[in-house]
């Protein structure tokens, strides 16, 4: 029998007979490891303990202490156990697919009767029985004809279709969890008893078209979450409760910020309160960018198809573009334009007007660019995922030698902005070349090497996000963490050698010859709409005073105080504070409750005592008591708090 060599994480290697399993390898190291083993990584590929290993390579044995592999297996096995429980309770249900997703899994079912929320409890109970049975999990490799015949005999047409979609050279793995079977790539745990019975929860139901195709059958989707232990599940469920309280759509209604309606899908109707946030944030970014050496421009919304073809967007991005056909006067054919999905090609057009010298570089060009991108209706989500949005977009035209200094400068800029907006932590991901891209491999090699080197020079070692770069260049993705620990990918920074070439951008170098500039694409907030949604949820609507849409309400306790109320409001407004009067004939407690629900940060209550003493009674959002201050002192204090951080 031939021998293979397996190398362990510590660098040591051992020889084994070809066909050895990872379980046997674990046993050869230590019986205790074999008992704790759940799977293995062979040359970076996650494999079952029972799969034969026929070639030499590197191997690592995984246990429940290995977070990534453990959670993947737990969630994958729970998907199978849930599907088994559903078919045990309702045998006529047909199964489809059940992939692992963030924090858990979902599984799609074809069933005549709709599931109800009450059914989730019954499914959970059945799942716990399956776990308690400690049924073994086993796998076999079948040929296509056998697998298709098996599923046809059992009336599972979705599985037959899935087999037809699997490339012919791939193995078909059939997994059994006890006596229940599913088609699956694996890997899986060794028996159902390895699942933590107290660390999962079925969360909700939804509809989903088969394979995401609206012309195919509508299926029923059940979502679940799972963790390694009960404490992690409890923490996650608490986070979900917090997220529900902070939902920007709910708070948007309570604070009267915006609304959306069917007549404008994916577009936002900003109300006065919401627009106050928008303008304050945009004014802040405009000041920061000017101080950072950016010029501000504005470019057209509707641009000819030809420019999008020249830039490569027509070929690589057309599915996300809104096409505009126009019957030009006396034209024999329609003119085809598109609403711009991004600003970059238009910025190159500005750069190309007139000669540019190396002395003009770096040229930092910014735009609050209104963009439109097609998103499927099912993907739209409040103001977080829309079709019409504005980016704090900028493009830096520079030389290759300036990539590093401009990248360091930008990361410092972004870090400062995020701190000002209340986000102290962020991670950086390095997104590499996608399968569909423009430019040669040589260009991509150069772009990726330049961006990675510049990022490291800034003191950051990024996480690698393979295949997620833009079609024209690699990018950094800045992922910030909100108040309840959720991650949001917002800012980006990209190195692009492709668009300047395609759109014939050039500058005159020191040698008097023409050279191509490098184009650095960057956005700090990304979409204003999405970032405002993130701010609303992170702060639970209780925005810092300078961003709050309604900063101060001056409320009369008695009608005789109305004149003084209006005087206070005028003084606050003169100091640059968004203040308003509430002189309605309502009790002060009613007013406080109403404005607190609307997340007004400060309420100044005015009664006759305050009138006589020229004071105010200041009550802050969520505080139990109030503070009496002289009017001038309160005005100065609030004016300081309402000043944007870059102006303090």
UniProtKB/TrEMBL annotation:
Subcellular location: Cytoplasm
One Pfam entry name: TGS
Keywords: Aminoacyl-tRNA synthetase, ATP-binding, Cytoplasm, Ligase, Metal-binding, Nucleotide-binding, Protein biosynthesis, RNA-binding, tRNA-binding, Zinc
One GO cellular component term: cytoplasm
Residues annotated for Zn(2+) binding in this entry: 344, 395, 521
UniProt domain Aminoacyl-transfer RNA synthetases class-II family profile: residue ranges: 247-544
Co-factor remark: Binds 1 zinc ion per subunit.
EC number: 6.1.1.3
InterPro entries: aa-tRNA-synt_IIb, aa-tRNA-synth_II, aa-tRNA-synth_II/BPL/LPL, Anticodon-bd, Anticodon-bd_dom_sf, Beta-grasp_dom_sf, TGS, TGS-like
Cofactor: Zn(2+)
PROSITE patterns, per database record: AA_TRNA_LIGASE_II, TGS
GO terms for biological process, alphabetical: threonyl-tRNA aminoacylation
Record-level Gene Ontology MF annotations: ATP binding; metal ion binding; threonine-tRNA ligase activity; tRNA binding
Main location: cytoplasm
Record domain TGS: where: 1-63
Record's catalysed reaction(s): tRNA(Thr) + L-threonine + ATP = L-threonyl-tRNA(Thr) + AMP + diphosphate + H(+)
Subunit field text: Homodimer.
Family: Belongs to the class-II aminoacyl-tRNA synthetase family.
PANTHER family in UniProt: THREONINE--TRNA LIGASE, CHLOROPLASTIC_MITOCHONDRIAL 2, THREONINE-TRNA LIGASE
Protein name as catalogued: Threonine--tRNA ligase
Organism name: Paracoccus tegillarcae
Gene this chain is encoded by: thrS
């Amino acid at each position: 029998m031939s021998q293979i060599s397996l190398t362990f994480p510590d660098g040591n290697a051992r020889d084994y007979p070809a066909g050895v399993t990872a379980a046997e390898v674990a046993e050869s190291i230590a019986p205790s490891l074999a008992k704790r083993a759940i799977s293995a990584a062979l040359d970076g590929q996650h494999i079952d303990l029972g799969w034969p290993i026929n070639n030499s390579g590197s191997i690592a044995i995984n246990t429940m202490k290995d977070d990534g592999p453990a959670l993947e297996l737990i969630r994958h096995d729970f998907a199978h156990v849930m599907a088994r429980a559903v078919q045990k309770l309702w045998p006529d249900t047909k199964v489809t697919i059940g992939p692992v997703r963030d924090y858990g899994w979902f599984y799609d079912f074809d069933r005549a009767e709709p599931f109800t929320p009450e059914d989730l409890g019954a499914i959970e109970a059945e799942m716990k029985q399956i776990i308690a049975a400690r049924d073994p999990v086993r796998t076999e490799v079948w040929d296509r004809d056998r697998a298709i015949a098996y599923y046809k005999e059992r009336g599972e047409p979705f599985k037959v279709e899935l087999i037809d979609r699997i490339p012919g050279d791939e193995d078909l793995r059939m997994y059994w969890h006890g006596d229940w079977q599913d088609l699956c790539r694996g890997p899986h745990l060794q028996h159902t008893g390895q699942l933590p019975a107290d660390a999962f929860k079925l969360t909700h139901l939804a509809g989903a078209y088969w394979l995401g195709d609206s012309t195919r059958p509508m299926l029923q989707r059940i979502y679940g979450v799972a963790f390694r232990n009960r404490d992690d599940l409890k923490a996650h469920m608490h986070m979900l409760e917090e997220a529900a309280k902070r939902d920007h759509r709910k708070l948007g209604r309570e604070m009267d910020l915006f609304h959306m309606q069917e007549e404008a899908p994916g577009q936002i109707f900003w109300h006065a309160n919401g627009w106050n946030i928008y303008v304050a944030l945009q004014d802040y970014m405009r000041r920061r960018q000017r101080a950072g050496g950016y010029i501000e421009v504005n470019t057209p919304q509707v641009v000819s198809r030809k420019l999008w073809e020249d830039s490569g967007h027509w070929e690589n991005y057309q599915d996300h573009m809104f096409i505009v056909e126009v019957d030009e006067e006396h034209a024999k054919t329609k003119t085809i334009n598109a609403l711009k999905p991004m600003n970059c090609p238009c910025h190159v057009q500005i750069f190309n007007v007139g000669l540019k010298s190396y002395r003009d570089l770096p040229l930092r060009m910014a735009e609050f660019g209104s963009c439109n991108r097609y998103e499927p209706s099912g993907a739209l989500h409040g103001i977080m995922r829309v079709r019409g949005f504005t980016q704090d977009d900028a493009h830096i035209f520079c030389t290759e030698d300036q990539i590093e200094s401009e990248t360091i400068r930008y990361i410092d800029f972004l870090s400062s902005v995020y701190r000002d907006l209340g986000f102290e932590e962020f991670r950086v991901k390095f997104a590499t070349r996608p399968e569909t891209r423009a430019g040669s491999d040589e260009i991509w090699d150069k772009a990726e090497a330049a961006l990675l080197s510049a990022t490291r020079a800034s003191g950051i070692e990024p996480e690698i996000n393979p295949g997620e770069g833009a079609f024209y260049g690699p990018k950094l993705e800045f992922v910030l963490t909100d108040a309840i620990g959720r991650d949001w990918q917002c800012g980006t920074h990209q190195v692009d050698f492709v668009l300047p070439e395609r759109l014939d951008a050039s500058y005159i170098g020191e040698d008097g010859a023409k050279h191509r500039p490098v184009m650095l694409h960057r956005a700090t907030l990304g979409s204003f709409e999405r970032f405002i949604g993130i701010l609303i949820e992170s702060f639970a609507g209780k925005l810092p005073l300078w961003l709050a849409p309604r900063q101060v309400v001056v409320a009369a306790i008695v009608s005789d105080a109305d004149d003084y109320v209006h005087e206070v409001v005028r003084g606050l407004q003169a100091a640059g504070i968004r203040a308003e009067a509430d002189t309605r004939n309502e009790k002060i407690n009613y007013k406080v409750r109403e404005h607190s629900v609307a997340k007004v940060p400060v309420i100044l209550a005015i009664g006759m005592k305050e009138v006589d003493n020229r004071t105010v009674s200041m009550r802050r959002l969520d505080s139990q008591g109030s503070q009496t201050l002289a009017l001038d002192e309160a005005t100065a204090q609030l004016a300081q708090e309402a000043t944007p951080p870059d102006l303090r």
